[in-house]
Amino acid sequence: MSSKSNCDCCINYSYNEEEDYYECQVSLDEDEYGKFLGGTFGGCPYFQIDDEYRIVRKQM
């Protein structure tokens, strides 16, 4: 991607070890996928922050 996006900290953006690349786990339609590949998919409606400490805060 040419521009920095919020995908790096999204829970839906995971590493595929078999293919050796990161991919979005959300089923994007053709237009959304084109924007994603072009790096212009700002303001993603599927974005969820990858907050690994969320469970710990609930335990307190």
Give structural notes:
The protein is α+β, with helices and mostly antiparallel strands and 60 residues long. The chain has one domain. It has 2 helices and 2 strands; from the N terminus they run ββαα. It has helices at residues 30-38, 54-59; strands spanning 13-16, 21-24. Strands 1-2 form a two-stranded antiparallel ribbon. The protein is globular, with a radius of gyration of 13 Å. The mean pLDDT is 79.
What are the main properties of this structure?
single chain, 2 strands, 60 residues, 25% helix, two-stranded antiparallel ribbon, alpha+beta
Can I get a quick summary?
It holds the Pfam family DUF6472. By secondary structure, this protein is α+β, with helices and mostly antiparallel strands.
Q: What is the makeup of the main sheet? A: 2 strands, antiparallel
What radius of gyration results from the CA coordinates?
A: 13 Å
**What low-confidence regions span 5 or more consecutive residues with pLDDT below 50?**
none
* Overall morphology: globular
**Estimated share of beta-strand residues:** 5-15%
The structural domain count equals 1
Structural class: alpha+beta
Total helices: the number is 2
- For the termini, the CA-CA separation is 39 Å
Helix content: 25-40%
Return the string of H and E elements. Answer: EEHH
Neighbour order of strands in the largest sheet: 1-2
Total strand segments: 2
Average pLDDT level: 79
Domain DUF6472: 4-60
Pfam family, one: DUF6472
InterPro entries: DUF6472 (IPR045525)
Organism: Lachnotalea glycerini
